[in-house]
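Case study 2.
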Amino acid sequence: MRLCAQCSQFSNFDLPPENGDTMKYFFLSDSWTTGRVWEFGGLWNEQAWNRKPYLQKQPLYIQENDENLWLYKTEEAVLMVEVMPKAMTQPTIGQVVLKRLLSAEQVVDMLCKEDVFHPRDLKAAVPSLNESEAISV
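Prediction:
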């Protein structure tokens, strides 16, 4: 928690949702950024919620059409996220609203079908198992 300078009270402005809360996910290209966020009552109201919406880029991405699509995580209360190109060289697309956020199960299903990348080299950190060491289910 952080002390709010204006009201001398503690605020959970930057804290993630509580453990056990359902999260939603989406993939976003390096060349795009997030904008406005909607919840059940309309646009996210920071004063009513007493915080910004929880929206965090995860350290995993998949590649599609030579682009890195980064996994983002957001809280259950978020219904839609506006996304737009970072640098608009050609005004072909102004903005897009993501209305269909993914569940954890849908993300796992997608990650199992794609090559998944992590910014660090995981090969040194995770030893490979041979068949005799593998755990059977």
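The beta strands are 2-3, 10-11, 23-29, 32-39, 42-43, 55-64, 67-75, 80-85, 96-98, 116-117.
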